[in-house]
Amino acid sequence: MSILDTRIALLAAAVLAITTARASVITTVVVEDPRxxxxxxxxxLDLLRRKLASDxxxxxxxxxxxxSEAQVRELAPDVLAALRRxxxxxxxxxxxxxxxxxxxxxxxxxxQLSTDDLTPLGRSREWDAxxxxxxxxxxxxxxxxxxxxxxxxxxxxxxxxxADNLLAIGAPDRAVExxxxxxxxxxxxxxxxxxxxxxxFGSRVGRACGNMEVPEGFPPTVLxxxxxxxxxxxxxxADGPQPIRAYRQVxxxxxxxxxxxxxxxxxxxHALDLLRWIAGDxxxxxxxxxxxxxxxxxxxxxxxxAKVSDEIRKRHEAWRKLVDALVARELLPAERVPKExxxxxxxxxxxxxxxxxxxxxxx
Length: 363
Hints:
Elements: H1 3-32, H2 41-52, H3 57-70, H4 76-86, H5 93-108, H6 115-122, H7 128-135, H8 143-152, H9 157-170, H10 172-179, E1 185-192, E2 206-213, E3 221-228, E4 235-238, E5 244-251, E6 255-262, H11 267-278, E7 291-297, H12 301-328, E8 343-349
Parallel strand pairs: 1-7, 1-8
Antiparallel strand pairs: 2-6, 3-5, 4-5
């Protein structure tokens, strides 16, 4: 063999040795980490349980997120224990993030929370949708909580409607007692010259905007919002004349905007509608309304009294029919029926010629 052939052979042997060594290293690495990329179900459950029991809030939140995504019912007791523990800790932004994640897991795993569990959360509007969603699973078991939310909900229309709807389902007699004081009918009689076009009225719908920023190291943020009426992907939680739904939304970013529609609540109309619903009246249009505008085109006193009196009579009859239905269903004791019909009549004289005074109307 020539010197050149010898050198080529040595070079080839060196290359082969290097290649073999690299392959050996790679093979060794694979052998040293034999665990599969995906854990078994038992391993996954054990990992989530340890996270939910962690002292670190972010780790606990990740455990809640994992439990929510996995939707394994076996984790329900662990989520409940983690939530109860979390509610005893000092408030902070981190605690709010953990609470939010745990409530999401509780909802998706159908965790059964007691009224004592939910009451501290119900004092803050932050958790309205979550609390009412959880209470909606068994409204009869949460009457005290729902009564509190009724009282606290005057400035939060969706909260008030949802709480009252759930009371109407779980404790209709208590709902009637709470709603009756707000059930008023206001009859506005406008007396016009024939042909006067009258007035137009609009409704108000506003929007509330803001931003939310979550601390580093936490899982995606899950928000729940109460919405009135129909909405795609929102779950019905409180049926009634104005159904309330809960909308779940996941935010992946740490900072994001929040926009919510703000619709005012006519408390009188809400009370009348829900009382009718409790009494079994499912007709959408009714003679009873919080505000009824009656236009009368003036001709003479007798015609005015006859026509407007007929409108007033219809409202009194409708009210008495409603009250009788509630009494018949044993939801309103006869002795607690209002002694006077809650119907107020206001007359506005808009005639150009007012020399002939308007006669008194029956009340």
